[in-house]
Amino acid sequence: MMKRFLKDKSGSSLVLVMICMSFLILLAGAVITTTITNIYLKSSQKATQENFYQTDSILDAIAAGIQNESSAASASAYEKALGEYNASLTSSGNSLDNKYIKDFLTDMVSKLTGGTAYDPNITSYQYLDSVLESYLTDEQAKSYVRHTADSNGITKGNLVLDGDALILKDVKVIKEHDTRKDYETTLTTDIRIEVPTVSTEAHSEYLNYAILADNQILADNGTIFAKVNGNMYAGTVERDATKEDTKAGIVISGGAKLKINADQIITRGDVSVSGGSALEIGKSASSDKNAELWAENILTSNSSTGTGGNEVNINATSYIADDMEIAGDDDSVTLKGKYYGYNFVDNYSNVVVSPAPKKLSTKAEYSSSISINGHDDDLLMTGLSELVLAGRTFISKKTTYANDVKPLNNPDIELGESLAVKSGQLSYFVGAVTSSGSGATDGFVKRVDALENANPGCVHATSVPGKGTFDTDSQKGRPCYYFEVPGSDGTGNVQYLFDYLSYEERIGIPDNADGTKQFDVLKMITDGELDAEQPLKLYSRKDKNVSADDIHYFYLSFVDSKAASRFFDLFYNQSAQQTIYDTVNKTYVDTIGIQLPSFAGNKVGYILSSGNIMYSDNTQKDVNGKGKIALRLDNTLQTPSNSFLQFAKESSKLYMSKQLALVDDYETAANSSNWRLYETGDLSKSGKSDSTNLFNTLVKVNDIPVGTKIGHYPITRENGNTVQCGYIISDGDVTWPNDYTNQAGCSLSDPCFILAKGKVTVLGSDANSFNGLIISGNDVELAAASTTVNSDSEAIEKLFEYDKKQAKPVFYNLMQEYFRKSVEAAIGNDGSSSNTNNVSYENWKKNG
């Protein structure tokens, strides 16, 4: 039975099948499990990648925001570098590249920290989390991890200065998956900001100049009609503060004519046109921008023999630090473009506009205005779009007339007008006496000692200064104001009384309807409008043609600048004397008169003045065709606004910078506590004593060899033409073209570079013009009938390039590094900043 059972194999197939089925089931389960696991892993990987990419994109958005800030900071720093490009080293010795780096870091630190000032000696700052969040969308910003808040609740991270790079430490982002909240990614990194590389090597603006004269640019002969096409500078290095004719940088006299087409016309002194001469200024033919004129004053005057008839036509943006004075007879001045007479004080450091100051400058040289002191003159300004006159006119003549015996130190007497004719001074005039006593007991101003000598005990003063009385033949105890002024001989004070009631009666301004005075001298004194110490200001003059003695003129002395304007307005419109004065006023203007800018139609512009403006109302003409002299006041507050104060400050520093180095951002000017160049001091007008004159800035003066070197080099222009370009290097005077063409192989048509310690005299004509650059340590005189000077920046640039490559350069090494680096940079460079991404990650961590 057992044997039979053992031999019976029925059912074995079933077992085998079951075993196989079990194996297949296990195998299928393994396959299914593996497939499910793979699907899960792939899903997890996808979610992880999606979450990582989303998190990483937030960091990229932060980096992109920083990159945009960096690009803007680089562009701004580069623009400033170009602005200072010509003087490519600052006064402190920093290179132009260092200037660019400093400006870039200053901008970036300020932006990232919310205004913290950059200091190269400080290496640790704090960036604001809010700045980085501003680069993100609202949704992205939710993932940005803020740092610990300070005591003010502001969260900040560490910003480290590493050499010339900035590093934002520990920028952290944590992002959950959008749908699977069990997934999140944490990214932590430092962000490094390198200073973008930049080529500060571009075209040198110095090479756009035709004339750089360290003293004067002259055209002083009636046969001359000269033309200058290119920028020009005149430095007045030989100026003498006591001699007015040395203070002019651009001098056109004796009937000469000068036409200038340029981008920049700069002088440390005045623009002077006299003796029937003519000046025309317009933009460069290659420019679409107005010319810029920077000067101290614009002056016209008669010749020594009385010849007037000057013509001035200026179509430019004119920045005039002091005044325009039209003092010749029959002169005609036409202004187009923009005219900014921007100064109203000496020092802008402590100027406040709120509360509004009552007093503007008390010195004429620091107060910009326009005055007409000649007869039958025209001033046409209808072509101006902007007219700014920030200061007031003054009676100002500190020196003596030609026949004076001794100098008289007079104060400046401020008037209430920003644009005036000379006869307006009469409105402020009170009386005159002589030092010997003539007129001392008559009129509205009386010498106390003279009155006492004539009538002892007639003066009854209670205080000095102060109210008092005096006795006349017809009245006892007549009210007066008692004051004293320094004597013109310097021996002590002289006492006067002001018969103000008689003066008020003479002026004849009617009372108000209620019987109160419109013009009340005593009230003006007590209200602080007139100076209580000296309500009348003394102006002395000694002229043998008038009197053997000093003549003492007395003018109202206003403390309140607005009060001066109000007085003149009142006097001009209501005084009984105005009919007489109006007749006198008209003698100063021709039938065309003084025409202000007009803004008819679509023309946009403005007039801004601190005081009254006198002009011709040509709608009301007299029998001689002359318009009535009228008054206009555009600034009713008569005080500077914050925006104008800023404009005045910037213009003063700009002019200072341009005088020193012809650039806009010269650090010597920017860092100076002064707001202008003075006649004396560390930064003087001439620059001679302190070596801040332009010739010293550009040239190694002591290295100029003795004698004169003349030669030429072949240069290849951009159009492929090879031409000859000459040079003249001299420690003395130079005459063009004679000195050059006398040398073998030198042609009149050659462009040329002239460097001379002495005077450069330019002859030639339209057909035989001078083309190139003249740098003179003294004057440049345009001396032929049709002298023409053209800048040629391309030729001069290539001339310097050629000389630099020589084993022994003739003139390249004579130039100071300011000029030399500027020209070096101009050779073969495009002057652009790098666009390379300068923002990168370091110490990057994921989920760490």
Uncertain segments are 85-94, 400-405, 827-835
Strand content: 25-35%
Class by alpha and beta content: alpha/beta
Report the biggest beta sheet as strand number plus sense, adding barrel if it closes.
Answer: 12 strands, mixed
Would you report the number of β strands? 44
Q: How many whole angstroms does the radius of gyration measure?
A: 40 Å
User: If you average the pLDDT, what whole number results?
Assistant: 85
By DSSP (H or I, 4+ residues per run), the number of helices equals 16
Helix coverage percent of residues? 10-25%
Can you tell me the overall shape? extended
Overview of the molecule:
There is one protein chain. Helices cover 24% and strands 30% of the residues. The chain is of the alpha/beta class and 848 residues long. A twelve-stranded mixed β-sheet has the order 35-34-23-19-17-15-12-9-6-42-40-38. Strands 5-8-11-14-16-13-10-7-43-41 form a ten-stranded parallel barrel. It has a five-stranded antiparallel β-sheet with strand order 1-2-3-4-44. Helix 2 (12-83) crosses helix 3. The longest helix is centred in the first third of the chain and has 72 residues, at 12-83.
List the helices and strands and how they pair.
Blueprint: H1 2-7, H2 12-83, H3 96-113, E1 124-128, H4 129-133, H5 138-141, E2 156-162, E3 165-176, E4 184-193, E5 209-213, E6 217-219, E7 225-229, E8 231-234, E9 248-252, E10 257-262, E11 264-267, E12 270-274, E13 278-283, E14 291-295, E15 298-301, E16 311-320, E17 323-326, E18 332-341, E19 369-372, E20 377-389, E21 394-395, E22 413-414, E23 417-421, E24 429-434, E25 445-447, H6 448-454, E26 459-461, E27 466-470, E28 478-486, E29 493-498, H7 500-507, H8 521-526, E30 536-541, E31 551-556, H9 561-574, H10 578-586, E32 589-595, E33 606-609, E34 612-621, E35 627-632, H11 642-661, H12 667-670, H13 694-698, E36 708-716, E37 722-730, E38 734-736, H14 738-741, E39 752-756, E40 760-762, E41 770-776, E42 780-782, E43 788-790, H15 793-804, H16 817-826, E44 839-846
Parallel strand pairs: 5-8, 5-41, 6-9, 6-42, 7-10, 7-43, 8-11, 9-12, 10-13, 11-14, 12-15, 13-16, 14-16, 15-17, 16-18, 17-19, 18-20, 19-23, 20-32, 20-33, 23-34, 37-39, 38-40, 39-41, 40-42, 41-43
Antiparallel strand pairs: 1-2, 2-3, 3-4, 4-44, 21-22, 24-31, 25-29, 26-27, 27-28, 28-29, 30-31, 34-35, 36-37
